């Protein structure tokens, strides 16, 4: 019977063309998400002039020198450049530099009291790529490390979220009245965003039916608590689907879309490598996929 | 960090991967343990962990055309002015909610910070920033009340009278 280390890091498994393609698509997504955050946060920093709640490195270094000038945009440009350099394997240190500067961008952006978690999985993934680039010379092991590392910390993150709920509230966290509170809270956020206060059909349903609200919270909590099971290969599809279902529910009932987190979980849930292999074998000369596979092998 | 050689065996590489994972896990644990659960990208993910607790958000109403400013706590149907949508104007409502709820002392710097958040959108406009408080309630299920906090224009501002002494209750 395979141990957990074999499920996370199957370093003796041969890499197929489909796996290389899957890996490079996953890496491209992380690079794209990182560049998006670098600029999105950078542009927002231009509106900030005060520190209400310092986070991360901002608790030790005064980040106010980043306010009122174009330094956030310069930082965004540096992060973008480093991510592209890392993607094309031009420097092994590029991803680490990108990660550190992205942390700095985050700490400068989120000084007003908000503690978002939408970018955490992206940040963890960049760190994984950075460590892999420095620790493994052999590309096969580097790629296995990155994928196993992401399974571990994605599963850990969702399970920690579930444990926090049990510690913060207890087993009765699933009480439907708690969902009423969050529906109203996010309703006010939507009101503030768009200037319209309106609940959709699903929100009206949970507000009207306490048992349905309780059932939804219970399913969400179980999905989070079981997420660590994705460390083991046989559980990845069911657990990943449960987590994706949780995100769809959060979006429909609370109006919060964790698009990048969902993309990462989607990449880790489905057997993309096998599907790509199947497609590459079935088609003699798949034009688009063939080019992508050649590119993935070149910059693996 | 020394890179492994390209000829390392799969078993050696796997051991190295496990050690690196354990090292990141330890750093993760140390950083969240010493920073109240948050040191991006490390987190214990505590969002929505406190079920049933009262919450506080923010809402902005455009009161440019209103002759008099009133500082009464209101229900939604009593709001006056026109809702001012934040997202089309580039403002994150959660930022604003935190700015309003976590500000302990409304001094000049804090009011200026609020005006800067609205950037160039205050020209010829007066906006009233509400703190919105929600809590579980016996008869209303969820009671939501709107407390006017700060009135801001391009060069003017006014605070809820109670903000200079004690915060207004909902």
Describe this structure in a few short sentences.
By secondary structure, chain A is mostly helical. Chain A has helices at 4-8, 17-45, 71-87, 94-109, 120-135, 139-168, 176-194, 201-208, 210-225, 236-254, 259-269, 272-282, 287-298. The two termini of chain A are 30 Å apart.
Between the first and last Cα atoms of chain B, what is the distance in angstroms? Answer: 56 Å
Largest sheet of chain A: none
Report the radius of gyration of chain A as a whole number of Å: 21 Å
Oligomer: heterodimer
* SSE string of chain B, helices as H and strands as E: HEEEEHHEEE
Share of helix among residues of chain B? 25-40%
Q: What is the number of beta strands of chain A? A: 0
Terminal Cα separation of chain A, in Å?
30 Å
- Rg of chain B (CA only): 24 Å
**Pairing-aware structural class of the strands and helices of chain B?**
alpha+beta
- DSSP strand content of chain B: 15-25%
Number of continuous helical runs of chain A: 13
Detailed description of the structure:
The complex is a heterodimer of chains A (300) and B (170). Chain A has 300 residues and is mainly alpha-helical. Helix content of chain A is 70%, strand content 0%. Chain A has 13 helices and no strands. Chain B is built from three helices and seven strands. In chain B, the strands form two sheets. A five-stranded antiparallel sheet of chain B has the order 4-3-5-6-7, with helices on one face. A two-stranded antiparallel ribbon of chain B has the order 1-2. In chain B, a hairpin with a 3-residue loop joins strand 5 and strand 6. Chain B is elongated. The C terminus of chain B is likely disordered. The chains are: A mainly alpha (300), B alpha+beta (170). The interface between A and B is large, with 79 and 77 residues.
């Amino acid at each position: 019977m395979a141990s957990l280390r074999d499920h996370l890091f199957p370093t003796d498994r041969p890499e197929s063309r489909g796996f290389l393609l899957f890996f490079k698509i996953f890496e491209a997504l992380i690079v794209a998400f990182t560049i998006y955050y670098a600029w999105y946060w950078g542009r927002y920093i231009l509106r900030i002039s005060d520190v209400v709640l310092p986070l991360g490195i901002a608790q030790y270094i005064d980040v106010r020198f980043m306010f009122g000038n174009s330094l956030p945009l310069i930082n965004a440009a540096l992060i973008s450049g480093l991510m592209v350099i890392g993607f094309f394997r031009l420097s092994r240190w590029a991803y680490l530099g990108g990660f550190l500067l992205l942390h700095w961008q985050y700490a400068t952006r989120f000084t007003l009291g908000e503690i978002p978690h939408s970018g955490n999985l992206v940040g963890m993934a960049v760190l994984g790529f950075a460590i892999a680039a420095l620790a493994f010379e052999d590309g096969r092991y580097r790629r296995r490390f990155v994928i196993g590392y992401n399974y571990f910390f994605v599963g850990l993150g969702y399970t920690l979220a579930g444990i926090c709920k049990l510690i913060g509230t207890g087993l009765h966290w699933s009480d439907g009245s708690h969902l009423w509170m969050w529906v109203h809270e996010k309703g006010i956020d939507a009101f503030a965003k768009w200037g319209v206060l309106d609940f959709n059909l699903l929100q009206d349903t949970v507000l009207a039916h306490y048992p349905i609200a309780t059932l939804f919270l219970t399913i969400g909590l179980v999905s989070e608590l079981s997420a660590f099971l994705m460390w083991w290969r046989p559980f990845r599809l069911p657990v990943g689907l449960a987590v994706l279902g949780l995100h769809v529910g959060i979006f429909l009932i609370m109006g919060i879309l964790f698009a990048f987190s969902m993309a990462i979980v989607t990449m880790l849930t489905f057997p993309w490598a096998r599907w790509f292999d199947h497609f590459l074998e079935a088609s003699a000369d798949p034009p688009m996929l063939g080019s992508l596979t050649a590119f993935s092998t070149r910059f693996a | 960090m020394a890179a492994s050689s390209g000829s390392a065996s799969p078993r050696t590489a796997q051991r190295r991967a496990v050690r690196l994972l354990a090292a990141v896990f330890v750093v993760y644990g140390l950083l969240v343990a010493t920073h109240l659960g948050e040191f991006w990208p490390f987190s214990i993910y505590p969002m929505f962990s406190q079920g049933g607790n009262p919450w506080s958000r923010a809402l902005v109403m455009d009161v440019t055309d209103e002759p008099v400013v009133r500082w009464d706590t209101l229900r939604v149907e009593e709001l006056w002015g026109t809702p001012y949508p934040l997202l089309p104007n580039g403002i994150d409502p959660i930022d604003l909610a935190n700015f309003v709820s976590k500000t302990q002392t409304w001094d000049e710097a804090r009011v200026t910070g609020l005006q800067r958040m609205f950037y160039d959108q205050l020209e010829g406009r007066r906006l009233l920033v509400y703190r919105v408080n929600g809590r579980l309630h016996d008869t209303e299920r969820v009671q939501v009340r709107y407390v006017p906090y700060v009135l801001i224009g391009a060069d003017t501002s006014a605070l809820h009278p109670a903000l200079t002494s004690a915060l207004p209750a909902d």
